[in-house]
Write a structure and sequence with these properties.
mainly beta, 53% strand, eleven-stranded parallel beta sheet, 278 residues
Length: 278
């Protein structure tokens, strides 16, 4: 395992953005890697790993930026039974993941704590969840999450983006979510799934949700929600059973969304000026 800490420093970090290599604290040149010092850590080539457990890039410090410079972190060799994360930070502060392609992991990116940013990435062919982000003052924006699902580690559903806490989900595209069936042959597909969210869900595009058996699809599903704003999202179902946008409590406000292809367009939210097409 590559361990990158203070002794691996190449330069003092300036701003937390690589924009090439000039502001990189150091480089991640092999996987798996553990980051133990703050700063901007960059890729300068595509990287692949065959791990089926653990984490390809493990963030164990606060104030860390992973900037892939549009290179790939690949985990397809871990197979459908993988439980490995592409990048992960547990109970950390101010982690940022940007300009990455995360492919073939159980979870593409999983960040918890607070102050996190996941932006301008592509999450491709991850088997369970594309993006998982939890913690106050965090945001996932401008990400493309495609072809999520197929995990044989967990059956019954798959999720494009999962979030909790005071998190904003802004201008993301979720396309293609297919859960691996459970022992009863059922799988649900969630585009965006939140729990105890109190942020904003705005300008996202969700589609390509595919259930299995008697499973249903859920475009934007908000469980135990706080005061959330759900606005200007385009949510498309498969024409079968499912819900376009759901709130547990009416303090979730849905405004100006376009919803089509669900048996139930909107449920539980306070709504205004939404377009719902069967």
């Amino acid at each position: 395992m590559l361990l990158l800490g203070a002794g691996s420093s190449l330069s003092s970090p300036g701003i937390l953005a690589a924009e090439g290599y000039s502001n990189c604290e150091g480089f991640i040149d092999s996987l798996p890697a553990t980051i133990t010092a703050q700063g901007v850590w960059c890729l300068r080539k595509d990287l692949n790993t065959a791990i089926s457990a653990g984490t390809a890039i493990d963030i164990r410090a606060n104030n860390v930026t992973i900037d892939c410079n549009d290179f790939k972190v690949g985990g397809l060799a871990g197979g459908a039974g993988t439980s490995a994360y592409g990048v992960r930070a547990l109970s950390a502060l101010n982690a940022t993941v940007r300009n990455c392609t995360m492919r073939g992991f159980y979870v593409g990116a999983g960040l918890s704590g607070s102050g996190h940013v996941i932006e301008d990435n592509r999450f491709d062919a991850n088997t369970y969840i594309g993006i998982e982000i939890a913690g106050d003052a965090s945001v996932a924006r401008h990400n493309l999450v495609v072809d999520t699902g197929g995990s044989t580690t967990v059956g019954g559903y798959a999720v494009g983006i999962k979030a909790g806490g005071a998190v904003d989900l802004i201008d993301n595209t979720v396309s293609g979510v297919v859960g691996h069936p459970n022992s009863s042959g059922i799988a649900l597909a969630y585009g965006i799934s939140t729990h105890h969210l109190s942020g904003s869900i705005a300008g996202n595009r969700v589609g390509g949700l595919v259930p299995s058996g008697t499973g249903t699809v859920h475009g934007i599903n908000n469980q135990e929600n706080g005061r959330i704003s759900i606005r200007a999202n385009d949510v498309t179902g498969n024409g079968g059973a499912g819900t376009g946008i759901f709130c547990t409590f009416p303090r979730g406000s849905a405004l100006g969304n376009v919803i089509s292809g669900f048996s139930t367009g909107l449920s539980g939210c306070t709504t205004q000026d939404n377009l719902i097409v069967p």
